[in-house]
Specification:
The chain is about 15% helix and about 40% strand. The chain starts with 6 loop residues before the first strand and ends with a strand. The chain has one domain: 3-Layer(aba) Sandwich (Rossmann fold).
Length: about 190
């Protein structure tokens, strides 16, 4: 069996990033790779990623720091906004609450946590054990076509899953946008 036969592929999903994130200081969780948030918001962003190679690949503009989102090295109330752009799908579900707790800690009062991610169905044990989502991201700078993939095992997630985690830790979900297999949730501290 080849890798392509194992892929559960979600066709192209369109996302538009606008000048919507408030504040002077934005923490971007998982800001390596395409570095979408850093590309859009430049030097207002501190992009963290546990992988140095991913940060080196990201566009210039933000301050880039190798760091694990489960243990942020920032003081309480340091950021006006925190973002996560298709990052939580790569973090073990057992660690999601810990990441949310850290985000809550470093976010200023009334600050916003903006989360974009994919709806990943529960793994059914089939040969299609790799989840792949293709994205077309319309940013103020350029259109980016990319894709993300992970093992489907123990990775199921949806909007309600993340809202539940956030609200249990004190966040308020103030806006939810969902289309096909992608979503954006804006939480307020």
């Amino acid at each position: 069996m080849n890798q392509e036969e194992r892929m559960y592929v979600v066709g192209s999903q369109k996302i538009t990033i606008q000048e919507e994130i408030i504040g002077k200081r934005i923490l971007d969780i998982g800001g390596g790779g395409e570095g979408i948030i850093g590309l859009c918001y430049g030097d207002r962003v501190i992009a963290i990623d546990p992988r140095k190679d991913e940060l080196e690949e990201a566009p210039d503009g933000p301050l880039k720091i190798v760091m694990d989102a489960r243990e942020l090295s920032f003081l309480k109330n340091s950021f006006d906004a925190v973002t996560s752009f298709f990052t939580l799908m790569y973090i073990n579900k057992d660690d999601h609450e810990k990441v949310f707790r850290e985000i809550y800690r470093v976010l200023k009062d009334n600050g916003e946590f903006v989360l974009w991610d994919a709806i990943i169905p529960e793994y059914d044990g089939s040969i299609k054990d790799i989840f792949v989502i293709q994205l077309e991201i319309d940013t103020p700078i350029k259109i980016i076509k990319t894709g993300y993939g992970i093992s489907r095992k123990d990775k199921d997630q949806d909007v309600e899953y993340f809202i539940s985690i956030g609200e249990n830790l004190g966040f308020e979900a103030i806006k939810v946008e969902s289309q096909d297999k992608v979503f954006k949730i804006i939480f307020r501290k």
